[in-house]
Write a structure and sequence with these properties.
FAD-bd_PCMH-like_sf, Uridine Diphospho-n-acetylenolpyruvylglucosamine Reductase, domain 3, single chain, CO_DH_flav_C_dom_sf, 262 residues, CO_DH_flav_C, 3 domains, FAD, flavoprotein, 23% strand, 10 helices, Uridine Diphospho-n-acetylenolpyruvylglucosamine Reductase, domain 2
């Protein structure tokens, strides 16, 4: 890698100030950024580590909402969210390997918005709210395409609020080397309806399958999805699977997620 400075602020205010420097970039868990630095795909002059900011850590639940600090690791979510939101904890427990789970963070994953990442599906299906150092962003406004979000330059995800559903489950078909989702489906049943979010499949990133939501809101069972299909148009096609294969997987995994939740 090339030469750069690294700072490790202990408060959110200091982190925001540090990110105001020219060519500064935030460093959360670093699971995507560090490989990018090695390949010189990113070349910041200053890295601002967010790992020592206590106010961005932790898991709490109150009033039917689970709040995760933006700097909370996947491993911590897997352990501490299980009593409040089991489906989300199970998702976190199956990200990468132990090394990734003990370094990668919720905020880092959602800020990066990898089209095959797991957290975007959970956040979109849950109707979560992104909390930053300057505002709150509804999930419907947050994701804006592959690796693109509503975050502005220097904005930091400090917390994510997940409304806790009545029932939920996440099922993914893994790419075996990376354990990213070739396709992943998160189903969440709330009192006022069902939300279904799909990751790993679309060229635009995570999306909601509205036809499935309508069917499941009337009958929360796998049979309610009989006859429903997803168009392969706009889905990814690569060495791991064609767009048609991914479209088929969406239907299969959604049924499995509903069965697991029910």
């Amino acid at each position: 890698m090339y030469s750069f400075e690294i700072v490790r602020p202990t408060s959110l205010a200091d982190a925001v100030a540090a990110l105001g420097q020219d060519e500064a970039q935030a460093l959360a868990g670093g699971q995507t950024l560090i490989p990018s630095l090695k390949q010189r795909l990113a070349q910041p002059s200053v890295l601002v580590s967010l790992t020592a900011i206590a106010e961005m850590q932790g898991v709490s639940a109150e009033g039917g909402v689970l709040t995760l600090g933006g700097g909370t690791t996947h491993g911590t979510v897997a352990r501490e969210a299980a009593a409040h939101y089991p489906a989300l904890a199970a998702l976190a427990s199956n990200i990468g390997d132990p090394a990734v789970r003990n370094r990668g963070t919720v905020g880092g994953s959602l800020a990066n918005n990898d089209p095959a990442a797991c957290y975007p599906a959970a956040a979109l299906a849950s109707g979560a709210t992104i909390v930053t150092n300057s505002r709150e962003i509804a999930m419907e406004d947050y994701f804006q395409g592959m690796f693109t979000t509503a975050l502005e330059e220097g904005e930091i995800i400090t917390a994510v609020r997940f409304p806790i559903p009545e029932k939920a489950a996440y099922i993914k078909f893994e790419q075996p080397a990376s354990r990213f989702a070739l396709v992943g489906v998160f189903v969440a049943k709330f009192a006022d309806g069902v939300r279904v979010a799909v990751t790993g499949a679309s060229e635009e990133g995570v999306f909601r399958w509205t036809e499935a939501e309508e069917a499941l809101s009337g009958n929360f069972s796998a049979t309610a999805l009989d006859g429903l299909t997803v168009s392969a148009d706009g889905l990814m096609s690569d060495i791991h699977g064609s767009s048609a294969y991914r479209a088929h997987l969406i239907g299969v995994l959604t049924k499995r997620a509903v069965a697991a939740a029910a």
